[in-house]
Amino acid sequence: MVEARRVLGGKVCFGGGFPVTKILTGTREAVREESKTLLDQVKGEGGFIMTIGCALDEGRGDTIEAFIEATKEFGIY
Fold this sequence. Notes:
single chain; 77 residues; two-stranded parallel sheet
């Protein structure tokens, strides 16, 4: 995702890069830390879409909630 930011930044929107396993089997804290790390690396000046590669109904409620909360907290441009 860092390379995608370098190549695509300022040209197109891009998203992804969050490991689905964290949503399915991780802890709230693991999801929070992974979200912060990813956003710190790629949010830049906009254009990054924070998303996961599975349907939200496949994840656990607590980890999905942590994903949303962390995105709101760390994803501010």
